[in-house]
């Protein structure tokens, strides 16, 4: 397995439904797995369906995203881990670029779009504006990546100790590690 896409989820049933439809329509290669980590949704997300795997953190605390990401990494079988939030939709071109990647860490640029009720990715400006995207964002096609969206070699993720929670923000502790411990690590943006 080359790539495991890991998404923590909390009470986002409709988003998961649309994402599952979207991933099924992409017809992903066999060396890509999709993992949703349900972090205490009420009601819980239903278990796995086909190529999309849904696991549960079984943690009683509310929204422990760092635990969901770490457990997802533990259950993943990919050489690379793609940590992504549920409100980010991955175009097939991005997945294809990641599959060609052989470095340690890759930052991902964002592009605004929505998944309609049929699980189709829509980039049309008119639709995005209707959904409330601000005009300043409509002018640009790609945007800077978010700190919690990245691809990393699995063995490096383990070596770094995964996500750790410091205070209220789990990802801030992770990115503090990136900036202070591994500044020489290769980073490539798509």
Short overview:
This protein is of the alpha/beta class and 190 residues long. The protein has helices spanning 13-26, 65-75, 92-100, 125-130, 135-138, 154-160, 170-181, and strands at 3-9, 32-38, 52-56, 80-83, 105-107, 114-115, 121-122, 150-153, 187-189.
Could you please describe the fold and organization of this structure?
The protein has 190 residues and is α/β, with parallel strands linked by helices. The chain has a single domain, classed as Spore Coat Polysaccharide Biosynthesis Protein SpsA, Chain A. Helix content is 33%, strand content 19%. The strands form two sheets. A seven-stranded mixed β-sheet has the order 3-2-1-4-8-5-9. A two-stranded antiparallel ribbon has the order 6-7. The radius of gyration is 16 Å and the shape is globular. The chain starts with a strand and ends with a strand.
DSSP, total strands: 9
Number of helices: 7
What overall geometry do the principal axes of the alpha carbons give? globular
Rg measurement, Å = 16 Å
Q: How does CATH name the architecture? A: Alpha-Beta Complex
The helix-strand sequence is EHEEHEHEEEHHEHHE
Would you tell me the overall average pLDDT?
77
Number of domains: 1
- CATH top-level class: Alpha Beta
Largest sheet, in brief, is: 7 strands, mixed
- Structural class of the secondary structure composition? alpha/beta
**Poorly predicted spans:** 166-190
Quaternary organisation: single chain
Helix content: 25-40%
Task: Throw out a few tags for this protein.
single chain; disordered C terminus; Spore Coat Polysaccharide Biosynthesis Protein SpsA, Chain A; about 35% helix; alpha/beta; 9 strands
